[in-house]
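Budget justification aside, the reviewers requested a transparent look at the raw inputs and outputs of the sequence design task funded under Objective 1. We therefore reproduce one unedited record. The lines immediately below are the structure tokens for a 197-residue chain.
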């Protein structure tokens, strides 16, 4: 964790503890720091439930997307104590059918945020192109295994990119020989998914 990241988290913890206003776009505490309170922000993001550290993990995920240049629509995040709230999964997307809700029962914040972004930004043509490129049977048919669905691969790739502290095109060009082959393939797939958005 970098010094800047540690400093940002310390500031957020302090602001949560005194109820101070956070920088624009960063959620601020509007409820109890104990499990069950609600956190909202001027950008429309909200967090319900969870401990202070779980909420900070969500805020950090949103900040990582912002740093990567990926604009998220308003997201409603519900943090649950056990996997029952996510139908037995570590996370769940689109429980409300509007494409803005994620439920978290494990540490899959970036992955679930990627689902929100793809839901609102990918065209049917981009989805079809990705399915064909990756030689997958489907974009989102849940009768197929997780790894066989384009929607899940896309969320994994975008979450990977956001978590890698994204490289600029110049850095990629200068360091291409040092990147692992799978990283180059992931970067290609990331560009395929995000270039039309």
């Amino acid at each position: 964790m970098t010094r800047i990241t540690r400093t940002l988290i310390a500031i957020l913890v302090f602001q949560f503890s005194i109820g101070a206003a956070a920088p624009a776009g960063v959620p601020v505490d509007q409820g109890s720091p104990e499990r069950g309170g609600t956190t909202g922000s001027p950008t429309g993001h909200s967090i319900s439930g969870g401990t202070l550290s779980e909420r900070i993990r969500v805020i950090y995920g949103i900040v990582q997307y912002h740093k990567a240049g990926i604009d998220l629509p308003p997201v409603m995040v519900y943090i649950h104590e056990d996997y029952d709230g996510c139908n037995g999964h570590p996370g769940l997307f689109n429980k409300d059918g509007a494409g803005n809700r994620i439920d978290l029962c494990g540490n899959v914040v970036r992955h679930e945020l990627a689902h929100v972004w793809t839901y609102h930004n990918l065209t049917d043509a981009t989805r079809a192109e990705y399915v064909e490129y990756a030689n997958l049977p489907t974009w989102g048919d849940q009768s197929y295994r997780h790894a066989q669905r384009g929607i899940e691969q896309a969320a994994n790739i975008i979450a990977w990119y956001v978590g890698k502290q994204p490289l600029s095109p110049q850095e990629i060009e200068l360091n291409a020989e040092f990147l692992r082959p799978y990283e180059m393939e992931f970067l290609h797939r990331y560009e395929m998914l995000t270039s039309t958005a």
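The longest helix spans residues 3-18. Strands lie at 28-29, 38-40, 46-48, 76-79, 91-93, 101-104. Computational costs for records of this kind are itemized in the attached budget.
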